[in-house]
Amino acid sequence: MQIGVHDSIAFSFDPERIAGFLESHGHQCAVLEAGSSVEEYDCVVTFGHEDVLLDAPWVHCIRAGVDAFPFERYAETGTALTNSPGIHATTIGETVLGMLLSFARRLHRYRDRQHANSWEVEPYDATFTVQDETVCVVGLGTLGEGVALRADALGMTVRGVRREPKPVPGVDELFRPDELHDAVAGARFVVLCVPLTEDTEAMIDADVFAAMDDDAYLINVARGGVVAEDALLDALDGNEIAGAGLDAHAEEPLPADSPLWEYDDVIVTPHVGALSNTYHESVGKLVVANAERLENGESLSDRVV
C-alpha cells in the first residue's frame, strides 16, 4: 500500500519514524510537505487537516480528537477518516497523575524556586497526599478509564461522569452529565477527559467553578474549548479554586501574553500529555491493522467518517 506521511506529524514526532515503521511492515511511504498532492496514495497519515487531503481515499489522524476535521466535507468526497483512540490511556493517565502529585507534594513550586536558588519551604498546610482524596473524572472513554484506574491504584476515591450508567473499573461512583455540579462538589481534583462537541463546549463554566471546593484543582487533558477560559481566570483570581493543570488550551500555542503563564499554581504544558517515545509505533500499528483489513475486504476500524 502507498502511504503518505503528512509533515504536520512533526508536532508529535519525526515523520520519518512512522514512515520507517510502516515500511518495515511492507508499505511504501513518503513524507509529504503541506500542500503536496495526495492522489497517488492509498492513505495519508496526518496530525491535522488541510483540504488537499480530501483527494485521498483514506486519511488517518494520529490523534483521538478529530474535532478540527470537517466531517461533512469528508462525507461529501467519500474520503474515509479514521483516528487513534485507545492508545493514550497510559500516557494521559500518567500525565494526569504527575500533575496531581505535583500539586499535592508542591513539586511545581519547588521547581520554580530552584531557578532562583531559593530554599523556601511550602506552608505546613499546603502539602497533602492524594491517598483518600476524591478525584472526579469527567468523561470515561479510554482516557478517563486510564486516569480512573491509576487514581484508584493510589488509594483515591474516584467519581466518574458519563452518559451511560455502565460500571467502569476503578470508579466508585457514577454521575450523569446533568449531575456535574454534584459530581465536582467535594472533589479535590476535577479531570477533564471528554471530546470537544456541541454538548461539551464551555461545559466547565462559572457555575461549575462555583460548585467546586476552593481547595480543588482543575486538570484539562481534553480540549481547550471544554473550559470557558474567562470563567477559569475569574475562578483563579477569586480563589474559587486552588489551581489548574492545563495540557489543552483554547488557543494553541498558548499566547505569550496569556495570564495563565503567571499563576504559581497553574501548570501549563503544550498539549503533550499523550506523547511518548513509542507514540509512532502505537499509531503505526493502527494503520497497519487497518491496511490489512482493507486488503481482506473488511471495513476500517476506528472510522469517524
Automatic annotation (TrEMBL):
Family annotation (Pfam families): 2-Hacid_dh_C
Key words of the record: NAD, Oxidoreductase
Keyword Cell cycle attached: no
Source species, domain of life: Archaea
Domain D-isomer specific 2-hydroxyacid dehydrogenase NAD-binding: 97-273
A molecular function (GO) term: NAD binding
Annotated NCBIfam families: Dhydh_Halo
Protein name: D-2-hydroxyacid dehydrogenase
Organism of origin: Halocatena salina
